[in-house]
Design a protein that fits this description.
Elements lengths: L2 H12 L8 E4 L5 H15 L4 E4 L2 H10 L14 E5 L2 E2 L5 E2 L6 H9 L4 E6 L12 E5 L4 H12 L2 E4 L1 E2 L2 E2 L7 E6 L7 H9 L4 E4 L1 E2 L5 E6 L2 E6 L8
Parallel strand pairs: 1-2, 1-3, 3-6, 6-14
Antiparallel strand pairs: 4-5, 5-13, 7-11, 7-12, 8-11, 9-10, 14-15
Helix pairs in contact: 1-2, 2-3
The structure holds ribulose-5-phosphate (5RP).
């Protein structure tokens, strides 16, 4: 099975977590896009009644295109579930996210959700987080000072993400600094705290103790892994 088809199947499988009446966080990326499309199909063909909160302008557009009713997170008192992609996950279900530059809205939505399902392919499973450069959203103001501070704290190179010749601007008007830690993040909770102490940091793409299940696509098909003592059960 090619990777595109694996992502599609995982995205559709993850949509099975969604039932009538749910308030659903809609993640960002090329895998969860298939979940959003499948949910739109069920809304239109099966009469599924849900409301969604998108985690990016890109996902908002897809959700609108497929007909999922959307609400503002501020208008409701939390979400039942969020389904989102990830760039890496480890055996404790800790995540690196933000490869699509949507980490701030993704984390706000994940924190407001009663449970979190990640859709991923099996290339994203790692022993130790960090081979994927860790995305960190930073303010444009004094961003090079923030990059220096990050580089000192993390002891690695930190590079502002570009979009062609200019820095990439997030949906929130900020920048993304990618920290090239290498696969060394053995204590992601401690690292998250250290990074968030730096004033110019808006948020970091370490999602700790949030993910309850991973819907995983691989060469042999799709399987779902559940975190022990998580908020979802098989
Ligand atoms: C966006 C993200 C994405 O969920 C992550 O990059 C995975 O995307 P994809 O499914 O396209 O590999 O965190 O900020």
């Amino acid at each position: 099975m090619d990777i595109g088809e694996a992502k599609r199947l995982a995205g559709i499988e993850a949509a099975k977590f969604i039932n009538n009446g749910m308030k659903v966080g809609l993640g960002t990326g090329s895998t969860v896009k298939h979940t959003v499309i499948e949910l739109g199909r069920r809304v239109n063909e099966d009469g599924l009644e849900i409301v969604g909160v998108p985690t990016s302008i890109a996902t908002e557009k897809i959700a609108n295109d497929v007909g999922i009713p959307l609400v503002q997170l501020s208008e409701i008192d939390g979400l039942d579930i969020v389904i989102d992609g990830a760039d890496e996950y480890d055996s404790n279900f800790q995540l690196i996210k933000g490869g699509g530059a949507a980490l701030l809205r993704e984390k706000i939505v994940a924190q407001a959700s009663d449970s979190m399902v990640v859709v991923a392919d099996d290339r994203k499973r790692v022993t130790t987080l960090g081979a994927f450069p860790l995305p960190i959203e930073v303010t444009p103001f004094a961003h090079l000072a923030t990059v220096r501070a990050l580089s000192n704290v993390l002891d690695c190179s930190v590079i502002i993400r570009m979009d062609g010749d200019s820095p990439l601007i997030t949906d929130n008007g900020n920048l993304i600094a990618d920290a090239h830690t290498g696969p060394t993040i053995s204590d992601p909770i401690e690292m998250e705290h250290e990074i968030l102490k730096i004033a110019g940091v808006v948020q970091v793409g370490l999602f700790n103790d949030m993910c309850d299940a991973v819907v995983l696509a691989g060469a042999n098909g799709v399987s779902t892994l559940y975190r022990s003592n998580g908020r979802l059960s098989s």
